[in-house]
Amino acid sequence: MDNAQKGGDLDSVGGVGACKVTACAYNSSLECSAENIQVGNHAGQAECDTFQERM
């Protein structure tokens, strides 16, 4: 079936909720504080490419 119609809510914005990676500089009280993130595929698993090690 070929259909050019697209679905979804164009006004909807995704967000990051809880973050369990305590070594990340963007983790603030187990919530991601990054303005935006990039997610990549690493060995078949989703992984945050925005990770920055906490100093």
Report on this model:
With 55 residues, the chain is mainly beta. Helices cover 0% and strands 22% of the residues. The protein is built from no helices and four strands. A two-stranded antiparallel sheet has the order 1-2. β3 and β4 (45-48) form a beta hairpin. The N and C termini lie far apart (52 Å). The model has no long low-confidence stretch (mean pLDDT 87).
Task: Name its key features.
55 residues, 0% helix, mainly beta, two-stranded antiparallel sheet
The value of Rg in angstroms is: 15 Å
State the total count of DSSP E strands: 4
- In spatial order, strands of the major sheet run 1-2
How many helices?
0
End-to-end gap: 52 Å
| Pattern of helices and strands | EEEE
Low-confidence stretches: none
What proportion of the residues form beta strands (DSSP E)? 15-25%
Largest sheet: 2 strands, antiparallel
Helices and strands: which structural class?
A: mainly beta
What is the helical fraction, as a range of percent?
A: under 10%
Kindly report the average pLDDT value.
87
